[in-house]
Amino acid sequence: MLYFVIEYLHVLGAIVILGTGAGIAFFMLMAHRSRDVALIAHTASIVVIADMLFMLTAVLLQPVTGYLLMQLSSTAFTERWIQVSIGLYVVAGLFWVPVIFMQIEMRDLAREAAAKDWPLPLRYFALFRRWFLFGIPGFGSVMAILWLMIAKPL
Asked: DSSP for 59-93?
């Protein structure tokens, strides 16, 4: 029973990471495309909260539940799919951590522009491009981990 509870929490964490990541990307992209400074500021504020509340919690719990599952199932760190998954998790983290700071800065820039009734500064657009590009390998790594977790092909 303990194994299934931990497995449930691990799968739930993966769902939260994928769902929150996809949701954040979608809503931030739609707000950005609107060019409505107030909407962008509001959406970016919610995105930062969602990232801290949902993503951070799941990201911290995934290695814990993954390790417990390995212990309970006698799975070794030497299994190739585990090694590749851990490597991809590190890659995802290397792209996700800077994204947090980009989102905070985009939020702050949009808030200031909205409060002063100014257009978004060029810095916002540079950050948005980088944020979008960082999302590709970050989110792609998470998708690959999910596949590895299910298929265990290696």
From this structure: HHHHHHHHHHHHHHHT--TTSHHHHHHHHHHHHHH
Specify the pLDDT at position 154. Answer: 81
Classify residue 130 by burial, with Cβ atoms within 10 Å: 0-12, 13-18, 19+: middle
Distances (CA, A) of 23 to 11, 20, 69: 18, 5, 28
pTM score: 0.93
Residue 14 and residue 146 in contact, taking contact as beta carbons nearer than 8 Å:
yes
Instruction: Please tell me whether residue 154 adopts helix, strand or coil conformation.
Output: coil
**Whats the size of the chain, residue-wise?**
154
Contact between 101 and 116 (Cβ < 8 Å): no
Q: Is the pLDDT of residue 130 over 90?
A: yes
Residue 13 structure tokens? 């964490």
Q: How far apart are CA 122 and CA 100, in angstroms?
A: 19
